[in-house]
Design a protein that fits this description.
By secondary structure, the protein is of the alpha+beta class. It is built from 11 helices and 18 strands. The protein has a 6-stranded mixed β-sheet with strand order 1-2-6-3-7-17. The chain has a 4-stranded antiparallel β-sheet with strand order 12-13-11-14. Helix 3 crosses helix 11, helix 7 crosses helix 8 and helix 9 packs antiparallel against helix 11.
């Protein structure tokens, strides 16, 4: 087994590499070299130059291939002056390891890598294969997972573990009665011997991003009749879109209703011109009961109707359409992960669903029955100033991941 100092040093190295929408290839090179030192085969798969995904293999593919995945990119640090310490230097304080990506999700990726290396070095026999898919560009476009899926790297997976952060500080558990009723929180806290409460996420919403463009005709503001006001036409569409999203929709038994939000509106060029162009963008957290494809079809029907009006010229462009992920909570893999999690993390380990998406949306795209468990070190400081991972939970998750790998491939 690796010494604790080496486990921390691997995470420290990952955090030190600024992968804010860039340079994942540097991490891929580092991890490939680390795996090579232990005789583990890897290959790099480029999504674009400098942004290489890494695939690592342990064991031989049989009828069981456990996919494990984590992304290498991070979000922006924001205002650097507000950080207590350098965001790209892993800094220990009060049992916490601070740094950009410490929670989301370089600790999860490091824990997967270390678990695979330890199993290899311990010469543990595996009845099947563990396949690591370390991806690029998850935070913005998930192009890494798209590339790997398109090239067939997910085709043989029979189960998938996504090491995204799945915990909250216990104080947050106690202070959020809307999400965690008092009785539930008290039971979880009483059973928890650590600083954080973690959950097994077995389902999450899909994510649809689209843009609607209104094309008009510019003219001098003193002669508006000579122009076509694109903003007016976009607002006409926006009101119909709002009516559509406000109406009742099919409700999924786990994920509930869709969650739509208009995120950007732009239009016009300057104050003395009739605006000839206007656009809005929207994100919708979709469900199996109302998919992204159905939302697109419904909105295009509205646009076709509006475009029958004189001078109306509206167009919808899909930016991203990721399907929801919804595993059967009774699947043997999910049940085993839940049992092992409770043992290894020293707490009750309940199932949960969330709105935010993961790379699993692409990796499970061609296998909707693939059991997916989103479980990893980290907490609700993702994307925040002074993001951190709890050191104890980081180390516990290495043993947790090893146990899941062994149980699945026994």
């Amino acid at each position: 087994m690796m010494e604790k100092t080496e486990k921390i040093a691997i995470l420290e190295k990952l955090v030190s590499i600024d992968t804010t929408d860039q340079a994942e290839g540097v991490i891929a090179d580092y991890l490939a070299d680390l795996f090579a030192q232990h005789g583990i085969h890897t290959e790099k798969v480029a999504s674009k130059p400098g942004r290489e995904n890494l695939v690592a293999y342990l064991g031989e593919a049989t009828d069981k291939v456990l996919g494990v995945t984590g992304h290498m990119d991070v979000v922006s640090i924001g205002d650097r002056s507000k950080w207590t310490s350098d965001p790209f230097t892993l800094t220990a304080r009060d049992g916490k390891l601070f740094g950009r990506g410490a929670t989301d999700m370089k600790s999860g990726l490091a824990a997967l890598v270390i678990a695979m290396i330890e199993l290899h070095d311990e010469h543990v026999p595996l009845n099947g294969q563990i396949k690591l898919l370390a991806t690029v560009d998850e935070e913005k476009n998930e192009t890494g997972a798209q590339t790997l899926t398109a090239q067939g790297y997910a085709d043989d997976l029979t189960a998938l573990l996504v090491a995204e952060p799945s915990g909250v500080d216990k104080q947050a558990l106690a202070n959020n009665p809307d999400k965690f009723p008092t009785e539930t929180a008290q039971k979880l806290l009483a059973a928890n011997q650590t600083n954080e409460q973690h959950f097994l996420i077995f389902a999450h919403n899909g994510s649809l991003d689209f843009k609607v463009t209104a094309t008009g005709k510019t003219a001098h503001s003193s002669m508006p009749a000579l122009g076509i006001n694109a903003i007016d036409h976009l607002l006409a569409y926006y009101n119909r879109q709002k009516q559509y999203f406000d109406q009742k929709h099919p409700i999924d038994d786990v994920l509930g209703d869709i969650v739509p939000i208009t995120t950007l509106i732009n239009g016009g060029e300057q104050i003395n011109l009739v605006p000839g162009h206007a656009e809005l963008t929207c994100r919708v957290r979709t469900t199996p009961a109302l998919t992204g494809d159905q939302v697109i079809a419904d909105l295009n029907t509205i646009i076709a109707e509006l475009n029958q009006q004189a001078d109306m010229n509206l167009e919808l462009t899909v930016i991203n359409n990721q399907p929801p992920v919804k595993s059967n909570p009774q699947a043997p893999f999910i049940q085993a992960v839940q049992k092992i999690g409770a043992q290894k993390l020293s707490q009750a380990y309940p199932l949960m669903h969330v709105a935010g998406g993961t790379d699993a949306a692409h990796l499970a795209k061609h296998n909707p029955d693939l059991p997916v468990a989103v479980v990893g070190p980290g907490n609700d400081t993702s994307h925040m100033i002074d993001e951190y991972v709890d050191e104890e939970m980081y180390l516990k998750h290495i043993d947790f991941f090893k146990a899941v790998m062994l149980d699945y491939l026994k």
